[in-house]
Amino acid sequence: GWTCQGRSIDLSRNSIGFFAEQFMPVGTRVRIGIWIEGNGIKVLTHVGAIVTRAQTEGGGGSIIGAQFDLALTPQGQPALCAMVDSRS
Description:
It is built from one helix and five strands, in the order βββββα. It is mainly beta. Strands 1-2-5-4-3 form a five-stranded antiparallel beta sheet, with helices on one face. A hairpin with a 5-residue loop joins strand 4 and strand 5 (62-68). The radius of gyration is 13 Å and the shape is globular. The N and C termini lie far apart (34 Å).
């Protein structure tokens, strides 16, 4: 029941790496909101995931790795897939 801000470091169709303001232990279930911007439009997409890696960082915050509950698909998350595919 809490919210924290983060910034993505790495994104694939199966997982995400991000810097978070708070530490999240491995095994924590999370709901990640990802903002996607393009053509002057900003869209918020949510995905469920589980924390698979957690490392505290000096100066506060943590580096978190999380595996999505379901892989991203063009049918379910077209904007996210387009963004991931454009970086490949």
